[in-house]
Amino acid sequence: MTIKEYNKAVDDYADNLFRFALKQVRNEMSANDIVQETFTKVWIKREDIAYEKVKSYLFTAAYHTTIDWIKKEKRSGDIESVNDPYFSDSGSIDLKEVLEDALGRLSEVQRSVVLLRDYEGYNYQEIADITGLNESQVKVYIFRARKTLQAYLKRMDLVV
Residue 128 falls within a domain, yes or no? Predict the structure, then answer.
């Protein structure tokens, strides 16, 4: 990645990374520190990162930086006790549990079509054949399910 591409990545993704970190740590100063540390990691490895994959790399690095920050703050006692049921004993967010809870709130049909589409990779026609629905019904169920999941995850004040 070139310096110009790095600067473009900062411009394009800094706000998104800040919101991501802020939802995790609920502290603006700490979220700023996490974003800065994330971009520092990317700067150090900029020659090894293809610009096309920088967004994925940034969010992965921000996630790990956030987890490290939470663990460090918990050990030092600077962070208040985390009473979130989705945090494991190690201080990391149990995304699997959050997603399972969110999926559990969907109707059976919505859950099935979303899992078939997003987890199994079937196309709309294949899902229609499997479920006995027509293709337009499948699209509607997937759209509504995703909206429901999005609203729930935003309400949970977690990763979205």
Answer: yes
State the residue range of the domain holding 56.
3-76
pTM, two decimals, is 0.49
Question: Residue 106: exposed, middle, or buried by beta-carbon count in 10 A (0-12, 13-18, 19+)?
Answer: buried
Phi, psi of 156 (to 5 degrees): -70, -10
Output the tens digit of pLDDT for each of the chain's 160 residues. Answer: 889 999 999 999 898 888 777 776 778 898 899 999 999 999 999 899 888 888 878 877 877 787 788 778 777 665 444 444 444 445 556 667 777 788 778 887 887 788 778 877 788 988 887 778 899 999 999 999 999 888 887 776 544 4
Q: Is residue 135 part of a domain?
A: yes
Q: Is residue 87 part of a domain?
A: no
Cβ atoms of 135 and 121 within 8 Å: the answer is no
Amino acid sitting at position 152: Y
